[in-house]
Design brief:
The chain is α+β, with helices and mostly antiparallel strands. Strand 7 and strand 8 form a beta hairpin. It is built from eight helices and 25 strands.
Amino acid sequence: MEFYDIREVESFSLSLQLENGRIEKPRYDHSVSKGFRVLKNGFWGIFEGNVEDRDGLSQAEKNAIFHSESDIVEIKSEGSFEMRVKEKPEDIPIEEKVELLRDLERVIKDVCVSTKIVYIENLRIFRYRDSCGSNVSYSAYRTGVSITGVGKGETLQFFSRRLMKAGGFEILGNAISKAEEIREVLPALVNARSPPSGEMNVVMDPNLAGVFVHEAFGHAVEADHVLQGATVLEGRIGDVVADENVSIIDDPTIPEFGFFPFDDEGVRAEKKVIVEEGVLRSFLHSRETAKKLGGRAGNARSQGVDVPIVRMSNTYIAPSDYSFDELVEECKNGIYLVGSRGGETNPATGYFHFNAQYGYLIEKGEVTEMVRDVSLSGNTLEILKNVRIGCDLQFDPGFCGKSGQLVPVSDGSPHLLCRATVGGA
């Protein structure tokens, strides 16, 4: 046996959903899981089960049945972290949580033909130890709401906003502002016209720009993709891959939705500078990819006690000097795109295609008419080599899926000015 580790994850969750005035039955979940890994003859043996450590490691070792070339960076980590919050979600009466959902619904229901509001809370308690002598633990809360409204005018449109962070019930203190944004935007959106199409100047809002940096760039620097030859950034450490005003960072230590103090291989979390002033400085690594490529581990994450894989946390483009008005003025003629409704990207080619929630025309340096059903596509590296970056960094939370595992993340960016292809969604 060359290496072993043991993970214990205890999770307490509650979700509430209010849809069209009807509250669904609360969904409580409490789970306790243990995961065991053994590295033997370069091959991983895996076992999951709530058993004694000796039994779990024995079962994992029995599953290490082949020979391979896996190896890991040996790191000894020690320490514990307990998140202290102002209002523990479990201490808030469920009636107060339901009333919050009803307050949010009241703000938007007059402009909607359908509404859906979801509340989530989670407490994750994590314990880890390994054959390197590591012994770490932490507890962390995540709390949030998601608000979706569907409006009807000349077209049927939906618009959604989220507020989710690492922290307690106190983070929802300004949730009403998210609902008010829907109330303001949706009546105009349902009667907005289709966008122009073609290559043009584009100002992305922080939400869409954050999705861009996560999907189009972040996945391309996950080291497992690099080892698979599935990214345009393979072998490019030290190369100029963006304009000199571009710095891209992954930082699990900031209190956004992707927060963690230790990753799921027990490595202490730290800020990683991926791109520094246009130069690619690092990939994101697990213990195994760090050994193979010479990087720094600390970005291995898992859903529950599934096998840890390389994942992002809070990934963002660092702010620069431009105000929003200055970006619009420099854009001259083009389009301002707001929010994201998903899309797709290919890290192997660098091409992406996203759908914005809505947009506005920019004419002679002024924001004018609203447009709907807008798509955005282009090549990631081409855009990053000719981009202007705002000063107003903001984060947007969500869940990232990879290899069938969902983990909480947050994407951040200021407003960006670039040139890309726009069309109807």
